[in-house]
Each structure stands twice: as C-alpha cells, then as structure tokens.
Amino acid sequence: MDFLQPASWQEALELRAARPDAVPLAGGTDVMVELNFDRRRPGALLDLGRVPELRTWRTEDGCVRLGAGVPYARVIDELGKQLPGLAMAARTVGSPQIRIRGTVGGNLGSSSPAGDAHPPLLAAGAVVQAASAARGIREIPVAEFFTGVKRNALAPDELIGAVRVPVATGPQQFSKIGTRNAMVIAVSAFACALHPDRRAVGTGIGSVAPTPRRAADAEAFLAGELESAGLWESRGELPETLARAFAVRVAAAASPIDDVRGTAAYRLHSLSVMARRAVTWAWNDLREAA
Amino acid sequence: MSTDAGTRSTTTTPGRVGYGRVGDSARRPDGTLKVTGEFAYASDLWHDEMVWGVTLRSPHPHARIRRIDITEALTVPGVTAVLTADDVPGDNAFGLEHADQPVLASEFVRYEGEPVALVAADHPETARRAAKRVRVDYEVLPAVTDARRAMDPGAPAVHRPGNLVRHLRLRRGGEAPTAPVVVSLDFEVGMQDQAFLGPESGLAVPAEDGGIDLYVATQWLHVDQRQICLALGMPPEKVRLTLAGVGGAFGGREDLSVHVHACLLALRTGKPVKMSYGREESFFGHVHRHPATMTYEFGAQRDGSLLYAKARLLFDGGAYASSTAAVVGNGGTLGLGPYRIPSVAVDAYGVFTNNPPCGAMRGFGCVQAAFAHEALMDELADAVGVDRVAIRQLNGMREGDLNITGQVIDSAAPVGELLQIVSELPLPPERGAHPDLRSLPGAVNNTTHGEGVVRGIGYAVTYKNVGFSEGFDDYSTARVRLEMTGGEAVATVHTAGAEVGQGLITVEQQICRTELGVERVVVHPKDTTVGSAGSTSASRQTYVTGGAVKAACEAVRAAVLDRAAGVLRRSAAELRLDGEKIAGPSGELLAGLADVLGDDAVEETVEWRHRPTHAIDPETGQGEAHVQFAFSAHRAVVDVDVELGLVKVVALDTAQDVGTAINPDAVVGQIHGGSAQGMGLALMEEIIVTDGHVRNPSFTDYLIPTILDMPPMQVTVVEYADPHAPYGVRGVGEPPTISSGPAVAAAVRAAVGKPLRRVPIRPEHITGT
Lengths: 290, 769
Fold this sequence. Notes:
Number of strands of chain A: 13
Mean pLDDT of chain B: 96
CATH superfamily of the largest domain in chain B: Aldehyde oxidase/xanthine dehydrogenase, molybdopterin binding domain
Shape of chain B: globular
Shape of chain A: globular
Largest sheet of chain A: 5 strands, antiparallel
Radius of gyration of chain A: 19 Å
Structural class of chain A: alpha+beta
Oligomer: heterodimer
CATH class of the domain at 172-289 in chain A: Alpha Beta
Low-confidence stretches of chain B: none
CATH architecture of the largest domain in chain B: 2-Layer Sandwich
Number of domains of chain B: 3
CATH topology of the largest domain in chain B: Aldehyde Oxidoreductase, domain 4
Strand content of chain A: 15-25%
Mean pLDDT of chain A: 97
Helix content of chain B: 10-25%
Largest interface: A-B, 36 and 39 residues
CATH topology of the domain at 172-289 in chain A: Enolase-like, domain 1
Distance between the termini of chain B: 53 Å
Number of helices of chain B: 16
C-alpha cells in the first residue's frame, strides 16, 4: 500500500486523478478503523493532512466556506455562532482526541448514514465543493450528495475541497440518541434550522435511513403552518400539536432498520421525540431573540 | 461482637502515603509508569529475532471439520509455520476445571471464533493473510444457541454425553411453608465482557534446553503452566512462565489464550514468537460473563420477614466448561443474597451451548443472581408496604447467622448497617432550572433540556465469597529475603501472584515494610521459579498471597532473631527486629542488623493456606463451602428520560466492609472501578449473540461507561476486621460489581414504573418501542 502525501491542493487533485485506487485520508477516524479491522486494503492512502488550503475557513457571500480538513474541535471553538447546528453536532463526535483529528470533509467522504455532521449540513442547506484536476470545482447540494450506504456523488477523480454552509439566520438544533452519554455512534439523529429570513425550515435526519436525508414534507408542512398561523410575524408560542404533527412527518421521512445498536421502532420513536423537542427549542430561541 | 470494634471512613480525599506500611495509601511502584504511558504491557513485548503468530478461527458456531489444507498458506513468502491439531504434541485439550477444550480444533468446532490453525510469519500482516489461505472444509452442523433449549431431548449435543455441565441442588429447612405473601419474577441477564484494555498478548522464546520461556499476561501462572505442559507434553521445569505487563483481567485471563499457541509456534520455528490479539479478536479470545435466566419466588410474613425462597438459575456456559461449574456453585450457594431465609430450594444449572464460552468474571455467579434477588426484594417491600431499605434490614444477615448452605457467618455481617449508611448519605441536589447538558440523560447529545426526565432511587446489597470454595486447596507461596545492600536493609519479596492492575505488588511491599521494618522492598518479577500463588481472582490475593507474604516475613524475622540470639547470647523470644536494629525487651538497641547478617541473606519460603472449605452435599447443597464473605451496599440515583429511554446515573454511592484496608486509596479505587463495571452491565454492556454469532465485537458497539456515564461516588469504607484473616482483611474487588448494577436497575425501575426484568436495560425497554 502506497502512502501519498501531497503538500498542496493541486498536487492532491493530480494524485487523486492518477490513483483511482487511493483512499483519501483526512482525520483517519473512519479509514484507520477500517484498515485496522482489515475490511479495506486500498492500493494507496492519499493523506490530505499536509494540504494547508483544506484547514482554513472563511466567510463569503453569506456562507462559511469550510475547508474539508477543518477538525471538529475548531468547528466547536470557532464556528458556534455562524454554524450553531454543525457545532452542536461536532460536540457529540467521539472523544476530545477524535474531535481534534476528525473533520467534516472526512465525514462527508465516508458518507455513513450515521455521520454526525450530515443532519445539520442538510438542515442548513449546505453545498459540497468537489474538485478535480481535470474539471475544476463542482458544487453538489448536500441533499444530493449521499447516494447510498457509505456512497456519495463524488467522481473517482474528485476530492472534497470544502463545504459551503449558509451562515445561520435563525436558531438551529441538533439532537442524537446514543446508549451511553458520550462517545457513541448515533442510533438516530435529528437536526433542524429555522430560516426566518425566508420563512423556511430545514431538517436533516441521521441513522434512520440508508443515507442521511431531509424530511422535506415536514419542512414544508411546518413552514406553511407557521405562515398560515402568522407565527413567523407574531413569534407566538409554537403549539404543541403543531410540534407533534411536525414530528410525525419527520418520522415519516425515515426508513430505519433493526440492528445491533437499536430497533427500527425505537429509531422512529426517538426521532419523533427529538424532532418535537428540538423544533420547540429552536422556536423558543427564535422568540427569545425577538 | 466484632461489629463494635469497627471503624468507618467516608473517603473523598487521597489517603496518607505515610511510610508505605499496612494501612497507608502507599504509592504504586508501577503508578507513574502507567500514567506516563511508559509501562511495558504484554503487547509491548519484543525480541529482535521474533516472528509473529496469528490464529485462524472458526466462522461457524458448530461444524465438523472435514479437511484442512495448509498448502497454499505455506507458500506465502515470509511464513515460517502453519500448524493444526495434528501438530499438538501432547494432549490436545485444556481447561480450568475440565480439559475439554482443544488447543486447536480437530474434529469439531463448537463456537464461532474457536481456534483451528496457527500461522507464524515475519510480519503480523503476512501471517494474517496466510491464515486466510488455510482452506478449511466445514460441514455446518445444527447449533444449540438458546440455553433454555440445551437440555431438551433432541437438542444437538455440544459434548458427550449431554449439555449439562452442573446442576447444583440446594434444599434447606424442609418443604416450603405456605406464606401469606408470595412474590415472584423472572429475570434475564445478558452476556457481559471483561473489556480489559490490554488485549491478550505473549512472547514465547525457545530455550537451549529444549524448553520454552513464555512471557504472558495472565491471572495465574501456575495453572497456565500445568495446562501448557500437558499440551506440549513437557515437564514443568521445561515450561517457564513470567508475568508480562497485564492491562486488566477481571476473570477474562483465567483461561488460556495465546499461551500454548505461541509455544507451539516457537518450538516449531525455533524462533521467539509473539502473539498479540487486536480488539476484535480479543472478544473471541476469552470467556465472558455467563448470561443467565432466573426464576425467583419469595414467601414472607405480612411484615415482610422471609419464610422461604425458591430459585432456579440457568447459566449459559457456551461451548466449553471453563469455570462454569464453579460459577454455578456460587450462583447456587450465594444466589439468594445476604438474607436470613428459613426454608430454601435452589436449583442452579450450567449448560453447554454453541455460544461463546463463558467463565470467570468479577462477581462470578453472584452478579447475575443479585439482579434477581434484589428486584424481588423490592417487589416484596412493595407487596407488604415496607420501605425498600427497611425490608433488607429486616431480613439482612447478621454475624452468627447461618446462610443457606448452613454455614455460620463467623465474622461481621453488617447488612443493616451498610444499608443504613448508604441511605443516610447526602442525596444529590435536585435538578436546577437550567441544568448543564452534561448532567442530563443524553448529555451533550442534546436530547432533553429536562423534558421527560424522572428521578429514581434504588438500593441493593450483596455478599460474596472471598477465595476459592467448595474444598479447593487454596494456597499461596511467598519467598522473602532480607539482606544488607549498600549499608541498607533490603527485603525482596517473590511470589507468583499476578499483578493485573489491582495493586498486589504494592500490598506485598507494604506487608514487608510492616513486618520487617525495612523501607526498601524489591518485588521480584512474577514467575514460576517460586511456588504457586493461586489465582488473581475471587478477591483473594490480598488475603491469601498477603497472608503468605506475612508468614514468610515472620519466618525471616524469626530466623534473623535466632541468629541474633546466637550472636548476643540471649533468648530469641526477648528480641525484636526493628528496621535495621535488633532491640531488647525494653526497646534498647542491642545490635545492628548488619552485625547479625554480615554479608548473608536470610531467605524463607512459606506455603500458606486459609481455613479449609468443604464440598457441599450433592443432595442438599449444605456445607461450609466458603472461607469468607464480603458485604457491600449501593444506593443509585438516576435521572431517566422516560420518553427516550436514556439514563443518567446522578449518584452511585456505596458502603463496603473491607475488614482492614491495607491500602485505603487502592481499596477505594477497586470500589470505584467495580461499581462502574456493575453499572455498565445494568445499562449498556452486552455482547449481543444471534444464532451463535457475536454481532458487536468492538468498542464501537460494545459500550462501557465513560466519564459522562459514571458519577462521582461517595464511598464509605467500613472496617470490621475478620479475626480469621491476616490483618483482618476482607476481599474487596468483587462486591462493588455485584451490588452496584442491581441498585442502578432498581433506580431506573423506580423512575420508569415498569418491571424491566432484563439487563442491560436498553432504551427501547424503557420506552416500550
């Protein structure tokens, strides 16, 4: 197995194109586990840890352009205001050591249905910036990025350069179920974002379907109900019946399975409880901000 | 009564290091190395010329091996040996109690993960790849994977003649009387893993005399040696073991793992062979705690006084006997808890299945039973309208009582007092209006800000035998030497007692300092050049090896004083050894130790036994089966998000009688760790086995408590010295693991209001989804 260590983004893209058998390595918190368990023996590892461009973020056009190599620890420390949902999710990843190594770009690359970063990226309407030496940058809405269990829309010669995440214009929440209180892979996860500027609601659900996905019907339903009740303007209390109806629709978007971490029935149940609670917290945050 | 002489301390601050004698919190000699990451564990073993050994394991829970073809594996460059059952020179069988487990499977495999072939190569990766090229032709056989079906007629036989390992029948007090109040329940306990952090590892080095030197992480060097000798067909003097750095054990290293395999490969290749399991293989490479299904019934007076108890316990032993019979012995003789019960009928069974072999784990048969008897005690309390602490105090054992095997409890049995202590410890504050997420169920996973959270409190109490029981010749050997080195008195203590992290080497040093008055005590490496110390298990080493070291020190002291008596022309009886001085009856200095010893060393080796125990009557289960009992009680306070089924243990407080705390800090450390392990079983730790296949052999999915799951503890250490034990010690390591889990389960039940008759309690059990 070759170990490729490009020192620049351009070099990384060229190596990626030249070595379709290479597996990109970011923080290694997924890849190294697979290698250790001998579930994977790629021809090469493409270590992106020495590509400085990947480890930066900046704000542009109302979005945070988050380099694929920015670790969770920095998302927590530096982006809590701009990307609160992602920061909350980052806080639930692994242990402190894992959060220092693991990156949002790596999480996207693995495309696990349980990836913690995915639900808040979906809720925020993020866009993945894929890049190749041959064709340059291609933008993929995150909702179209996940194509199956641990599969994504990247072409064989592409790498994830960054993810563009709209800066929050309203409250965001992230909740995740695990059977212990830290260092746990999600049994189910839910993220929501309120976009009062455009009177919209964003959602993302994790570990309850073959891919992370939005609960689009629930989003449209809640935004519409808030609209027709005049709540976007009045910022009145969110009726519990509405929160429950929203939660039912969120659960309807899921298609979970039974596995060693939990039952399908519990996944649906917990997802709906999280959706009801989290949207209520978000709405209350919005009211308090008013 | 000895209970009047006890002392009590609630420990919140580190103990006094003092002079490192008995009763001081002496520092561990291995402590700094471990904290700084410099300690050499067995996985760090290295020899410049070594090759690596790996194990090929069965993918099937039950199959006949038709044929094994190693040809292709042998052609892999770098491979130096491929071995199968045909290459085992001695008996192809080992086992702690019955030699029923093949070193390498020959005709049958009986569980998923059973070793079938070995490969040695110059790199572990090469060895693993070559192992995949060993072609094994299996004929898959029907498997018995439900212990409740194992004794059915027509169930596939795991071994001949049948699947029963042991049935312990216990009857006392005649036929059960009718009782005005009867409560009963069924309870089920899942398969817990020891989850030690240092996976199995060893290095076997072939010696010039044709023998072998094995460096290995284990719990009992001599029982390993005996089994290795049989498998290799070699005498003990050719098979020499040295303890390598052990990263936790908890019972999981009582059975052999890499031992014989590494030796076989070393003898075949003529090279040192290292074998080191990864985490996944470790889950297949050691026995686990027996899953159990239990049915219990209590009959009582209307005031809650027990009249009778009936219990049926079924332990799933998995594919090989390991220590199942002894676990059944404990579950049967101790499985009704520390209560006075006039009439008793217990049937405890251990059976073979094609599940992973189960054997020793901290708490050893008492852990499973305690979940059942403590849940039922709560039922009884509720049925008669008595407080849950009071019902236990009402029925709790006292010194002088007979237990259910008719054995007199002949030292302190402070059941009522321990419960009183935990019930009076300050309760944690109520949740505030804006709690820190980390204090809530789900913690920073942010699943509740207080919604659905209900607090519950639960109590449990236990007693556990210390040392080996039922007539086992349980002894330890200690060699102590005293000499002057560089003008300073130095004691060297040599035992084969395995230090597995619990602190035995510290205890050995403390005893030598106390008995001989020296400051410097060298702990000789643990090996088989001294006699057996018995197993580091059953909470026994401070008692038994501690007793042996004490006795060896006394023998050394007597020998020194004999010499001094000769030099000083006085009677040895009027002399005392006080550090580097020989003193007279009133403490006057008569001679220096250097004057008496000169360049000589005084060395004594003592084999020391505790009071004998006895086999129990096969019909009635009656007899003096155990040497000592250790008692503990826990109170758990939990916050449960009843809508999501998530639990935060808010407080887990305990009181335990430790007899005499040889090292108070180490005692508290044992209590913390044991409590966490018991809590883990109550809430999350389970090896999930489906149709004989382990589904979660990793720390990703076998969850053990983290710092956010384990609350700070209030630990009250009670010291009622046992007059029969050296220094009055009482085993410490296991009781916390037994009473903490049932207390947590009780607290969850109190919060949720559901029976919850299975542990670990999973979120979906609480939510009913």
